[in-house]
Amino acid sequence: SISVERAAEKAPRATVLTLTPRNWSWSSPKTGLSPRLSILIPCCTMLTRLFRMHGLLVASHPWEVIVGTVTLTICMMSMNMFTGNDQICGWNFDCPKTEEQILSSDIIILTITRCIAIVYIYFQFQNLRQLGSKYILGIAGLFTIFSSFVFSTVVIHFLDKELTGLNEALPFFLLLIDLSKACALAKFALSSSSQDEVRDNIARGMAVLGPTFTLDALVECLVIGVGTMSGVRQLEIMCCFGCMSVLANYFVFMTFFPACVSLVLELSRESQEGHPIWHLGHLSRVMEEEDNKPNPVTQRVKMIMSLGLVMVHAHSRWIAEPLSINTTMVIPDIGIELDHRSPRRIEPEKPLWHFYLTRMITMDVEQVICLALALLLAIKYIFFEQVEMESTLSLKNPITISAPALTPRRPIETCCRKELYVSQPLVTTQCVSVPEPASQTERDEVIRPLIAPAADPQQKSVFVVGEEEEEPKPLLEEPSIPTKTRGLEECVAILTNPELGSRFLSDAEVMLLVTSKHIPAYKLEALMERPERGVAIRRQMISAKLPSPTALSSLPYTDYDYSKVMGACCENVIGYMPVPVGVAGPLHLDGRQFQVPLATTEGCLVASTNRGCRAIALGGGANSRILGDSMTRGPVVRLSSACQAAEVKAWLESADGFQAIKDAFDNTSRFARLQKLLVGLAGRNLYIRFHSKTGDAMGMNMISKGTEQALCILQQHFPELQVVSVSGNYCTDKKPAAINWIEGRGKSVVCEATIPAKVVREVLKTTTAALVDVNISKNLVGSAMAGSIGGYNAHAANLVAAIYIACGQDPAQSVGSSNCITLMEASGPTGEDLYINCTMPSIELGTVGGGTNLPPQQACLQMLGVQGASQDCPGENARQLARVVCATVLAGELSLMAALAAGHLVKSHMIHNRSKVNLQETPGTCTKQAS
């Protein structure tokens, strides 16, 4: 259904479209689709979207669905208190039983059926344990319990409160329940990297599994329902139980279960390593390998079977049954016999609850057998299954390699050896989850695939910043080549085998495949079972080429979600760079308080900014305004002559020309909206600067896409126009340029604050007159003497870069974003208060895309309340972040200028940089007294 849906979405735009592996194809849209596809595609697309909408609705309103489902179940259970008869055999009615009803063979069959049902459920939960997620187990258990409850209420109502039939019904329900699809839906939800993705993934899972599960339930009901027409009463009752089992299972799967999954994961707000504790990082790959998508051949067979069974039911119930009724002979004498065997009302001897309690306590032999089996399997599952499963997995599919493949070159102590086996991304030996083998040979002979549970957190390697004489990790050393490594052809066969894959290859064998070009080095993360293992192998290969084999030992790489990096942030990854993150604040801005994260290695920066924030807060806070919001892209095009270039320039600046370009530009995105064009001419080269809003994204990719489409329209009007480059440095991006300073780029912001004279004296340790004088001499005249463009400030780039690194922005864009002019003047009745403002015309940032998708950077954005896209007004989060940047720059400017005016700059920097050279006891430094 997904393949057909995607094909239907792409078909109107495609010239030739082929659907694999079904080999459906059609040519140009003008010729139309084949008759079969023209009917199948809209139906499948509509059905998939219907289930997606249902899944999103249920996942978005879990409380309503759960309460409604429970209420409906209780109503069904209590309905027969007001309707139907009140006959309860053994309490208020004497129900004679014939000998045929209590045959020992029936008891044996029912006992065997119950035992098989218990064992079947046990094996289903045993398979779930191998997934390694306690959440899947808990959700599956909840699904089973509630399904049983729903089915029990249906049976009780169906039998008019007679509970004797429930013992026969429940085994059939347990045999028909299928946890695989329920757990597949749970894995869709558990594959979410954040709480926000849970609902979308549940809807996506419902779109994939819903149609298949619906068809399966329909086929099962029709097949089992055939038994209700057999004429054998016992078989009819059993088949009726089976049909109700399937319907109850389907009802819970479509309503209660997805709502419960959404609610459970929403309430599990604990996180670990930047993602929820229930997140399964490898499940995206697992779900792709599983056969969740329906087989079209099987689906066709089921649909044909369903139609045939519908015809059988229609013929038997609507045609054959009336005929059989009309031809039935009535025997008068049978009424006497039925009356003799009919139930007889008696006076109850005990309360109804006491009657049911006595029946529950009184157990027959077959019930004792079933209960004992259930208890034994439960004890085995809870207390012994974990160790047994780990032992089985460690001996499953062994791959023998020689000892040097696991042994580093130099001896390692016992504790280090254990750390090696825990952190090894490929070879996880028995010492991870079972007792350590008796000998090194035994350890080296067995390598189990990476489907075992994670290692004990206490044994995990810990990265410590600044640890002295840290022992290099054995994993990072150049691996020894095994003496009996497998051949290249065998390794290629294992890699390409869908049932084996890279997890059955050692690191040395993977490196052999990389060297032989069978695995591209840049695809290691994608081809390994875990991206982290691909990074580890690349580190080993790079370490062998470095001057020092242990050069990367202090660069961490473990416990990082590389799925967020792949294809978005970085290539050829060898680790990540931990940068200290400090916080400055509270920053009072526009009536709100912000705690500003600053990622920096410059001492005194956070302390200085914190002092500026305090001064602003004591002065009543800062105020800010957005002056402009437009990202730019400036392509260069070439005409045949300068005169023709001038004609194109005039057409672009006309109303009709601009509207034609704007229509083409705006059609490329929901958020991109062209605001204006700035056209410059140099000879026969034409430079066109597109100004566009980009929502909450920084927008370079968005505006580049719109620019390309606009240039295509421009070439249609001027065929002789030649596009030289989509970027002609007329933007200007990541380079100092006067056009950004004058015209603005990104967000243009102004921020101001008034600092009372008392705060200037007591917090900043200076005077207003001194600050104004230093600002004029340094920031204005000094920058003009240096020929600066946009550099009329003390250190705006310090704060811009620190916030950009912490919040996932492009650090290179701090070049243009640091354009700032800081102005100070005396104010107030006595002229002793300080009025300060900062104007920054080109702050280039965003809150979606790029580095903002990484969990640590998202955490810093969440500190400011601007993570992701704004739900109320597109672009508001990015504009708010720009205001915070400008206000933080103002705080930094205020504190640094005060330090310069008071002569404290050098002393405070030497103290915070821990330098003891020529440093005397100097009381009263600005940083000490400010704190």
Question: Short description, anyone?
Answer:
This protein is an alpha+beta fold and 931 residues long. The strands form 5 sheets. Strands 9, 10, 11, 12, 13, 14, 15, 16 and 17 form a 9-stranded mixed beta sheet that branches.
Jot down its keywords.
single chain; 931 residues; alpha+beta; HMGR, N-terminal domain; Alpha-Beta Plaits; 9-stranded mixed β-sheet; 34 helices; 52% helix; 11% strand; elongated; disordered N terminus; disordered C terminus
CATH architecture of the domain at 581-629 and 739-930: Alpha-Beta Complex
CATH topology of the domain at 581-629 and 739-930: 3-hydroxy-3-methylglutaryl-coenzyme A Reductase, Chain A, domain 2
Let me know the number of strands. Answer: 17
Largest sheet: 9 strands, mixed
What distance lies between the first and last C-alpha atoms, to the nearest angstrom? 63 Å
Structural class: alpha+beta
Number of helices: 34
User: How large a portion of the residues is in β-strands, by DSSP E?
Assistant: 5-15%
Mean pLDDT: 75
- The geometry reads as elongated
The radius of gyration over CA amounts to: 37 Å
CATH C-level name of the domain at 581-629 and 739-930: Alpha Beta
GO molecular function, one term: hydroxymethylglutaryl-CoA reductase (NADPH) activity
Organism: Takifugu flavidus
Membrane topology: Multi-pass membrane protein
Pathway: Metabolic intermediate biosynthesis; (R)-mevalonate biosynthesis; (R)-mevalonate from acetyl-CoA: step 3/3
